[in-house]
Amino acid sequence: MRVLRTPDARFANLPGFPFAPNYFDVKDADGTVLRVHTVDEGAKAAAPVLLMHGEPSWSYLYRHMIPGLAARGHRVLAPDLVGFGRSDKPDQVADYTYERHVKWMSDWLTGLDLRGITLFCQDWGGLIGLRLVAAFPDRFARVVVANTGLPTGTGWTEAFKQWLDFSQTVPELPVGEIVSMGTKRGLDQAEKAAYLAPFPEEAYKAGARAFPALVPITPEHASVEENKAAWKVLERFDKPFLTAFSDGDPVTAGGERIFRERVPGARGQAHVTIAGGGHFLQEDKPAELVDVIDGLIRKTA
């Protein structure tokens, strides 16, 4: 596996992102060592709030939420998935599989020995993060899901099909524009450039290219059975589980219902709809999400 590492200079002076980098090495089954980057802010002795990003974003997505959560006394961790942000990037699309991502982040989670976790996850942050919950339910205290899912080969929305077709055929993946189009407010040029910062060349985008095609939307996709097994664990997960989907995401619209129906911990929770949020609701409504996460922690601590 050939691994690329984005030069540090690419991350200098990004707007709204003053956070010091933290790194942890994980080892792939083939022996390749991969460096995983994490923003780690707030009180180190506090229980962790884990913010997991998706595609094609990185921990920059959480720049407006990290200070607010830290100010309320939480330890806030926002890792970059392998292939994104300041984490290492295998340069071949074939190097990326769903199961590899779960293993890499499992090794990161257990390597840091995180416990009492409150998970907030969106997009692929949910596809991977919920697999971590299923693999290590005792390490998680509560979960907030937003604009995500845990698919088991039962189909897709028209909006997702359009995204899949675009992502696999466009000659140059316009990462900043993609994130901007997934918001309601739109991003300025500096913000778009910040989302593109991890990817100085197209070879660095192999992970971003791979992710859409890895979503297990048909019975023939890999990881269908693994996700079904994860659902069996989630169907016994009785710790607080809250949905906070936005009202303006055509890709995941209605996706909160399956969690409310199947996860015991979702019953009786004050589920919310984030008004005025797009797919990347962290960009549109960060303060509201901070209130949701902090409120759930304080209510259920």
Structural class, by secondary structure, is alpha/beta
Q: What's the number of extended β-strand segments?
A: 10
Distance between the first and last residues' Cα: 43 Å
Spatial arrangement of strands, main beta sheet: 2-3-5-4-7-8-9-10
Order of helices and strands: EEEEHEEHEHEHHHHHEHEHH
Description:
With 301 residues, the chain is α/β, with parallel strands linked by helices. The protein contains 11 helices and 10 strands. It has helices at residues 66-71, 98-111, 124-135, 158-169, 175-181, 189-196, 206-214, 224-234, 256-262, 281-284, 286-300; strands at 3-4, 21-27, 33-42, 48-52, 75-79, 89-90, 117-122, 140-146, 241-246, 272-274. An 8-stranded mixed β-sheet has the order 2-3-5-4-7-8-9-10, with helices on both faces. Strands 1-6 form a two-stranded antiparallel sheet. Strand 7 (117-122), helix 3 (124-135) and strand 8 (140-146) form a beta-alpha-beta unit. Helix 3 packs across helix 8 (224-234) and helix 4 packs antiparallel against helix 7 (206-214). The N and C termini lie far apart (43 Å). The mean pLDDT is 97.
